[in-house]
From TrEMBL:
One of its GO terms (biological process) is vesicle-mediated transport. This is SCFD2 protein. InterPro entries: Sec1-like (IPR001619). It comes from Corythaeola cristata.
């Protein structure tokens, strides 16, 4: 948007964890990092400088975490960056955050933002998604209107306003905003739309979009808006959506249980739910799901008092997870990397 740019996380750039052979939590410089990590940091600094040069930006950097401070310092002392900052006309704040400092936030399944879009990704591009307009028009190509199916190329004001609401509103509010924009667009095109009150459903949004079907002029006028709403419909109807809602409810239950009980009893509650592939139903959690839940639990609980009871409970969970992972007929890339 005009005010915010989120770059995808770099899978290869992960802060080194403290421990034997690793750096301490004290302030470290680039020279204290392993050679491979040093190269990755330098590559990132070069890429960021190229991006800021293209945008004509003079950045003010903020860092949270040891590795982030190293990256911010490297960017500040990078010779081409110093020249760019003298010439740049625009200002921006850049925030670097170590990924290890917010594991709980990354593992939660909240739906406060409408942008957790589960629709299919475009090949190669990490952030562009695919929406399908072919069901809504007899025209075989819309490439002369705008790139069909990419929700990030919305150039008309209504689509831009809806895109902003996707980022700034909670999901329920964003869905209602999508309905309002559709109703206004249909009214301007004199399409026979009937406004209904109450909760907005994906089926209702789909029925509104159907009004634009085979009306080439209306499609051309509101192509960006229709693609955004289609992306939302595909997200709301996706099989992952109900699973995420279930996950969120279970996370809240775990949070409550952790507040009232010791960690061993929480792990013992989790144990019966860990099932092998041939014993799972479509509603049961997978091995990856349990790994995410464990990351969430251990991140929010803070310091844990060790003891024999905890050791026994953790060992049972470990054995159940190992068996479940070994019984996977086609392990996912994450499980393959772990094994």
């Amino acid at each position: 948007s005009a005010e915010l740019c989120l770059l995808p996380a770099l899978a290869a750039l992960f802060p080194p964890l403290p421990g034997p052979g690793g750096p301490s939590s004290a302030e470290v410089g680039l020279g204290a990092l392993p050679a491979e990590l040093r190269a990755a940091v330098r590559a990132l600094v070069g890429n960021l400088d190229a991006l800021f040069t293209a945008l004509g930006l003079r950045e003010e950097s903020f860092a949270v975490g040891t590795l982030s401070r190293v990256i911010a310092a490297e960017l500040a002392s990078y010779a081409p960056a110093r020249n760019r900052r003298r010439m740049a006309t625009n200002k921006a704040s850049v925030i670097f955050v170590d990924r290890t400092l917010d594991l709980a936030g990354n593992s939660v399944h909240g739906s406060n933002c409408a942008l957790w879009i589960t629709v299919k990704r475009f090949p190669v591009y990490l952030l562009a998604t695919v929406t399908y307009l072919n069901r809504y028009t007899s025209v075989y190509t819309l490439s002369y209107i705008c790139m069909p199916g990419c929700i990030s190329l919305c150039i008309d004001p209504a689509a831009q306003a809806l895109w902003e609401s996707f980022m700034n509103f909670k999901q329920k509010e964003a869905v209602m905003e999508a309905r309002r924009h559709l109703v206004e667009a249909a009214s301007r095109e004199n399409l026979p739309i009937k406004m209904s009150m109450g909760e907005v459903t994906p089926e209702q949004l789909s029925s509104y979009i159907q009004l634009f079907r085979n009306n080439l002029k209306a499609l051309e006028n509101h192509c960006g808006l229709l693609q955004l709403v289609l992306a939302m419909v595909q997200t709301l109807k996706h099989s992952q959506t109900s699973k995420w809602d279930s996950f969120l409810a279970f996370e809240r239950l775990l949070l409550q249980t952790i507040g009232e009980s010791e960690m061993p009893s929480v792990l013992n509650q989790l144990l019966p739910m860990i099932r092998s592939y041939n014993k799972r139903t479509k509603d049961d959690y997978t091995c990856e799901d349990f790994l995410v839940l464990l990351v969430y639990m251990y991140s929010v609980v803070g310091e844990i008092e060790s003891g024999k009871e905890l050791d026994i409970a953790e060992e049972k969970v470990k054995k159940a997870l190992v068996k479940a992972i070994c019984d996977e007929p086609e392990p996912s890339p994450v499980l393959q990397k772990i094994t």
